[in-house]
Each structure stands twice: as structure tokens, then as C-alpha cells.
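Incident log, structure service

09:12 report received: a user says their structure output differs between two submissions of the same chain.
09:20 pulled the input from the user's history:
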Amino acid sequence: MEFDSGGGYDFPVDPLIPPPEAPVFWLPQEDTSVVVLTGTPRDLDASPVSDPPKPWRGNPSVGDDRVAYRFALGSGQHLQIIDPLVDSHTHAAAAIPLGIEGFDRIEAVYRLLSALHGRAIPPDMRLTRQQRARQRRMLRVFDGYRAGATQQEMAEVIFSIDHLDRDAWQASEARHKIKTLLRDAKAMIAGGYRKLLRHRRRS
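09:34 re-ran on a clean worker, output below:
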């Protein structure tokens, strides 16, 4: 469904919804946690346990030739599902490409299966707790940068340090940490945020 803004543009999401509450849909090639469904192969379709015990398919939110919706895992967590057969009674199977990112997609499917069958849902492992904490610091630093704060003022707030004189600040570890956080925050906002949608792997 698209919403008319009244100004000549159509939006796939209602522009009146506050940003934190608006559903975000990612392309499956960008986000490895997107679960892509297909019909169950004929050799498996006859299984009496090929589907979950109760109806679970959601209402479509994005159209075209693919149907996408968000599936609630609980505790405020969601998985994006692409389900071309949402309106049919066909048993569903998950498509897992056999490339290296197939491991990431298996993790997402495992989380979906856990929710469907009442099991404990494993955490999303794309970011560690330490990485999440660093992302928050990056955003705080960028907010300070936009507000016109100096790097030293940012460091005093972020790292809870006292004001340093010029020479001490130039040689301080906090100065180098702030410069790195600000550099990485700018890169993330310029498009690097997409890296957060997939597992990190060594080259």
C-alpha cells in the first residue's frame, strides 16, 4: 500500500507514523536476517509436520511481485518475511542459498522456527554487546558534532573525564578515541550502516 502525501509524492510507509514506530523493510540481499519463503518441495510436502501447529502468516505490507511482512518474535523483536505464497494454503519452506551467507540465513530461520514452535528464541548474533555499545557511542558523538561541540567536549561527556589542558589533550588517548568514533560514525551514516545487517567476516 502507498500513501499519498498530498504534495505529489507517494510513500510506501505512512508519513504520519513517527519514525521509531514505522516498519522498515530491507532488501534480502542487504539484510541476511530476512527470511525468504517458497513452496515446500513435493518430496517433503506430504510430511504431516511440514507446517507449524497454528496459522502464523502475517498481513502483507509491501507488494509488487514479492510480499513482505514483519513477524513478531516477542520482546519487541521482529523478523522480516518475504512470502510470495502468503495468500495460498501452500506449505512454506525457507530458501537458503548455499553461499557463505547461507549460515547467516540459517540463523534467521532458526529464530523463526523457535518462535513458531514455542521454543526459546536465540539472540541476533550480528552484533555483539560490545559492538552495540560502540554503535551507541558513535551516534552520541555524531549528535555532539552536529550540535557544534568540540571533540574535547564530546570526550568529557562520553568518557566522563575532566577538562584537560591543551598539551594533555593533544597527547590523550581519549582524543584519538573520539576522532575514531567520529570518523566511523560519519562512514556509517554515509551508507556503512548496511554492514550492520550482516555478520562480519574476516577477508
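09:41 both user submissions now match this output. Likely a transient worker issue. Closing.
09:42 reviewer note: Residues 129-146 form the longest helix (18 residues). The chain has six helices and six strands.
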